[in-house]
Write a structure and sequence with these properties.
The structure holds 2 protein chains of 2 kinds.
Chain A lengths: L1 E5 L3 H13 L4 E5 L11 E5 H10 L1 H9 L2 E3 L2 E5 L2 E5 L4 E5 H15 L2 E3 L15 E4 L6 H5 L1 H4 L1 E5 L2 E8 L6 E8 L2 E9 L5 E8 H6 L7 H11 L1 H4 L4 E2 L9 E5 L3 E2 L2 E3 L14 H18 L4 H32 L8 H9 L7 H7 L1 H13 L32 E3 L2 E3 L3 E4 L5 H9 L5 E8 L28 E6 L26 E2 L13 E2 L2 H21 L3 E6 L4 H6 L14 H18 L4 E6 L10 H13 L4 E5 L17 H11 L3 E3 L6 H9 L5 E3 L16
Parallel strand pairs in A: 1-2, 1-9, 2-8, 5-12, 9-18, 21-22, 21-30, 22-23, 23-26, 24-25, 26-27, 27-28, 28-29, 29-30
Antiparallel strand pairs in A: 3-7, 4-7, 5-6, 10-16, 11-14, 11-15, 12-13, 13-14, 17-18, 19-20
Helix pairs in contact in A: 1-4, 1-10, 2-3, 2-10, 3-4, 10-11, 13-14, 16-18, 18-19, 19-20
Chain B lengths: L1 E5 L10 H10 L4 E4 L10 H10 L5 E8 L5 H14 L4 E6 L4 H7 L6 H18 L14 E4 L3 H10 L2 E3 L5 H17 L7 E8 L4 H14 L6 H7 L5 H13 L4 E6 L5 H10 L2
Parallel strand pairs in B: 1-2, 1-8, 2-3, 3-4, 4-5, 5-6, 6-7, 7-8
Classes of the chains: A alpha/beta, B alpha/beta.
């Protein structure tokens, strides 16, 4: 096969070497526009997993690469005057320049024809090739020429970063966080040979502008960073290599091949540098492609399809992790009130690829220390803006601390034994709650309990007045009663056969913030008037009293998913021109009135469930959502259950792993109020990770899809 | 997990749904399923299922899926209720928006605003079944089980609001697992009781190189509108017993309740070949 390779980076060189090695009859020509010894960037990092793949693909280059490795196993987090070290992470680094030399030598010895300082304006020189491999980087010419085929999508990130080298040789992958009057700067540094380290400085756009870094020269930029990180550089200098402040661009392509042209490495995809996987992905691409053309010698189309099928899912997973990681760094200022241990834990688990369990495998002592820290505090928000409470260890064995999910929580003076909030089933209320109590969660959540008959969702919705006493018992978990008024989502059929199906007989009149129906088939509500508001306030107060008499330990006010209180909060449901409509302060007035009235009548823990977004254009803004959280906390809510959507019928939700966690995280850590989170959380490990990272205080776990009983009846 | 087999209604030469259905009923299959496409040389899904229902008594008959909004809601309700009646309550009605605007054009249906119209259609369908205003009362209480497909958030929300379950569009088990987990999340988000039924599908063509080649050619043609993606779908065709077994196991592990394997060639021996692989 005649193969043209455009681009002499790791992807192109490695592919050329592997393809030639697999079949020396291939005629392979590689063209690179730069000199063989020119390179940008400093070192590259490989994990053990990648090294295994490199070893299996080509032992000779593997030996050369590993010979010059810097290897380390620790991650250091420099933060708030402390250095937190976590071990057991095995990484290897190599100078990019050296890697290229090894791969060039390998290509030369295998007989790949290479031509440097050779720029191709188009593919005409490869016209005679059976296969054209475009490994020409993130600004790929080939991708641009065939843009309509590959359909690339470029997302520019909000942060700015600059890539330096330094002679300071770190002995760990090092993160440094430095507060300045301009904002927060962070460093990602790692060694790549015995004398040199990569040193990347990053900050958000606003910080960058305030620091006056827009338009600075390389020298000015170096001087700024050397001064800022003087203590950590220990007198070493920063070295530049076309080191300019830039924004990272994430590239995705719908297709990676067209006819006989195929994209490889950065030309096809990029993943944010904070998970450091660009070279790794590029070289794995090369292995996959070289393998595919050997497996399908007679059908290039099959080979390229195979390559794409194999690599695209892997790359997408990394891009997803990279997106989580980059978002973490964009918002990291939010967590700078954390103690060093939970701060480091969150940093290490930011991308979702490393969980509490995985970290425990790597460094059990570190995780035990985090768990101990967590268990010592009866409330996870102590580290945030709340006044520190005395440490309450109770009878928790701190020598072998419990996982975060099983650590207690002090919620408004009530001790909750663990962090699990369990939803009671949908059957009759009291028996469902009793069944849930047997599971010994931290708290049992009731289904929606209507404060009055007209506030029911369906005819089956329990009404507060009818709630009988919950199972008594001093030792049992608190029952948290969800009190609500359905508003415009009421008078519908039970949800067995669908949601929001209006009752065709036996329905009742609806009220809402405005006379707007929930969906096209829904009954139109009446705008709630002042007399109605007074009744609703009284009903909520009476409902809380009933809950108290029934033995509830906590009350949660339903102000989410389009029900009555939520209809006031969202601009999509509240079009009022009076004092309860308009800006968010006005839209909050009625929900806050209900909260205040219940607060004065209910001494126990009181929460508010609210939708932090409407998932619809024109809905609640992020600013308004935070304003609401602040107002609820100031208005006496002890905790917030942060959910999303449900305001309008035709919403555009985004589901996925932990899809509600980010909304609650913002509220907890920007408002400083304990939060409950839910949404596609199914394992204790996921919950432990979220809790220890300070992203929530209580979690609602859902049953796992695909879970089947392990023990069945059998014969012996 | 139950396993069903597709009728070859979209496959070249696949018009003998009667004998295919008889053979499927003999085999270890829990259902027969049909695809739906307007702008393609395929059989009508409801007529094909009616024929299948007439010569079977056990298997469920399933649209996998029918494109809802290319049909008027009343006619769709009538067709579905009719199949449900003649099958004695064996219809499972899978519906989705479909990925091809051409289907709307050929059917003379408005493709604009089709998502909102689909939501409205789903709500109205259930009313038609319950009211029996344009169809006799369906043989199943409240109408046939309704499955809704799609991958994006709005589609999953629509599923969770109106359907009894989720039907996935095909792909490796890993893709199904992910979609199923999102579907379950949407279900909880919509505050529905219990959990959604989870249905999956995959393509197979078991036999010699000729079968494999014809199967791939059919899939490339059927999915030509997806551009380069057609090649990937063709590469995913299950062409060996081992591939079928791995696929079935993967779906089962991912929590699939019912998997329908769709033929890519219409040769009558495909049923026997598949039966040999999936028989318990």
């Amino acid at each position: 096969m005649r193969i043209g390779v455009l681009g002499g980076g790791p992807a192109g060189l490695y592919f050329a070497a592997l393809a030639k090695k697999a079949n020396p009859a291939h005629d392979i020509r590689l063209v690179e526009r730069n000199a063989p010894d020119a390179t940008f960037g400093w070192g590259v990092v490989f994990s053990e997993e990648t090294l295994g793949a490199l070893r299996d693909a080509d032992r000779e280059s593997y030996l050369d690469i590993t010979e010059s490795f810097a290897r380390w196993s620790a991650i250091d987090v420099h933060y708030a005057g402390k250095i937190v070290r976590s071990g057991g992470h095995v990484f290897s680094g190599v100078a990019r320049k050296h890697l290229l030399q090894i791969l060039q030598d390998r290509c030369r010895s295998l007989g790949v024809e290479m031509s440097f300082l050779d720029e191709l304006p188009d593919l005409s020189r490869f016209e005679d090739c059976d296969l054209v491999v475009a490994a020409d980087g993130v600004n790929s010419t080939v991708r641009r020429l065939l843009e309509d085929r590959f359909r690339p999508r470029l997302d520019v990130h909000r942060s700015k970063y600059v890539w330096f080298g330094t002679t300071r040789s770190f002995d760990a992958f090092t993160f440094i966080f430095r507060r300045t009057p301009h904002g927060l700067f962070q460093v990602h540094a790692y060694p790549f040979d015995a004398r040199t380290s990569t040193f990347i400085v990053e900050c958000n756009q606003a910080t960058w502008e305030r620091a006056g870094l827009e338009g600075v020269t390389e020298e000015e930029s170096i001087a700024f960073c050397e001064e800022l990180f003087g203590p950590e550089l220990e007198g070493h200098r920063l070295m530049s290599n076309r080191s300019l402040w830039v924004s990272f661009v994430t590239l995705r392509c719908e297709s990676w091949h067209d006819g006989n042209v195929v994209l490889l490495g950065d030309a096809a995809h990029t993943a944010h540098f904070t998970i450091g996987s660009g070279t790794k992905l590029a070289m794995e691409d090369a292995i996959s492609l070289a393998n595919a053309i050997e497996v399908f010698p007679d059908s290039l189309e099959s080979a390229l399809t195979q390559y794409e099928l194999e690599r695209q899912p892997v790359v997408e997973r990394f891009q997803e992790a990279a997106r989580e990681s980059s978002r973490y760094f964009e918002d990291v200022i939010r967590y700078t009130t954390f103690d060093p241990l939970p701060f480091a834990f969150q940093l290490l688990t930011r991308s979702g690829r490393i969980t509490h369990l995985e970290l425990e495998k790597r460094d059990p002592a570190f995780v035990a220390e985090v768990d101990r820290w967590f268990a010592r505090r009866a409330s996870g928000v102590d580290a945030v803006q709340r006044a520190p409470r005395p440490e309450r260890t109770g009878r928790i064995p701190l020598a072998t601390p419990p996982p975060p999910l099983l650590a207690p929580l002090d919620l408004a003076g009530v001790r909750i034994e663990n962090r699990i909030a369990l939803r009671a089933g949908d059957g009759p209320l009291v028996p469902s709650v009793a069944a849930a109590l047997l599971e010994a969660p931290g708290v049992v959540l009731t289904p929606f309990v209507a404060v009055c008959a007209d506030g029911r969702i369906t005819p089956d919705t329990p009404v507060a007045d009818d709630v009988a006493e919950f199972v008594p018992g001093v030792e049992r978990s608190p029952v948290c009663v969800l009190l609500g008024h359905a508003g415009r989502r009421g008078s519908v059929m039970p949800r067995r056969h669908g949601a929001d199906r209006p009752l065709r007989e036996g329905g009742w009149d609806l009220v809402s913030a405005s006379a707007l129906p929930f969906g096209p088939r829904s009954r139109t509500p009446k705008e709630l008037d002042r007399a109605g508001m007074d009744r609703v306030v009284e009903d909520f107060v009476a409902g809380a009293a009933v809950a108290g008499r029934a033995g509830a330990g906590a009350v949660l006010l339903e102000c989410s998913r389009g029900y009555l209180l939520a209809s006031f909060l969202s601009p999509l449901a509240n079009h009022r021109a009076d004092e309860w409509g308009g800006p968010v302060e006005a839209r909050l007035r009625f929900p806050l009135e209900v909260l205040a009235a219940v607060r004065s009548a209910w001494d126990g823990p009181l929460g508010v469930r609210y939708s932090a977004t409407d998932w619809a254009p024109g809905g609640l803004s992020r600013h308004d959502s935070l304003a609401a959280a602040h107002a609820f906390a100031a208005g006496g809510a002890d905790f917030l259950d942060v959910v999303a959507g449900g305001t309008v019928a035709e919403q555009r939700p985004v589901y996925g792993r932990f899809f509600l966690v980010p909304y609650g995280d913002v509220v907890r850590n920007e408002v400083g109020v304990p939060t409950m989170t839910s949404g596609n959380l199914t394992t204790a490990d996921e919950a432990n990770t979220i809790l220890a990272a300070g992203r929530a205080d209580l979690v609602v776990l859902d049953p796992r899809i695909g879970a089947r009983p392990t023990v069945r009846d059998g014969t012996t | 997990m139950e396993i069903g087999i597709g009728l070859p209604t979209t496959v070249p030469g696949g018009t003998d749904v009667v004998n295919w259905s008889r053979a499927a009923e003999e085999g270890p299959f829990a259902s027969v399923g049909v695809l739906d496409r307007v702008a393609y040389r395929s059989l009508d899904p409801f007529l094909a299922l009616a024929a299948a229902a007439a010569v079977t008594s056990r298997v469920r008959v399933v649209t996998m899926v029918a494109v809802g909004p290319v049909r008027s809601t009343a006619l769709l309700a009538k067709q579905a209720a009719s199949v449900d009646q003649v099958s004695g309550g064996r219809l499972v009605l899978g519906l989705a928006l479909g990925a091809r605007l051409e289907d709307y054009e050929y059917a003379g249906a408005d493709a604009r605003n089709r998502a909102a119209r689909f939501s409205e259609q789903l709500a109205a369908l259930r009313d038609h079944f319950e009211d029996a205003d344009v169809c006799p009362p369906p043989a199943q209480d409240g109408g046939p089980p309704l499955l809704v497909g799609g991958l994006a958030g709005p589609a999953l929300w629509r599923m969770a609001r109106f359907a009894d379950g989720y039907v996935h569009g095909g792909g490796p088990p890993r893709a199904f697992a992910r979609a199923a987990s999102d579907a379950a999340a949407a279900w909880v988000d919509a505050e529905r009781p219990g959990r959604p039924q989870l249905w999956g599908q995959g393509y197979f063509g078991l036999g010699d190189d000729d079968v494999v080649d014809r199967g791939a050619a059919y899939l490339r043609d059927y999915y030509a509108f997806t551009g380069p993606f057609a090649e990937k779908i063709a590469a995913g065709n299950l062409t060996t017993p081992g591939a079928v077994r791995d696929f079935v196991r993967g779906y089962e592990d991912a929590g699939c309740d019912h998997l329908i394997l769709l033929p890519t060639v219409a040769d009558a021996d495909q049923i026997v070949r598949l039966a040999e692989v999936v028989a318990p």
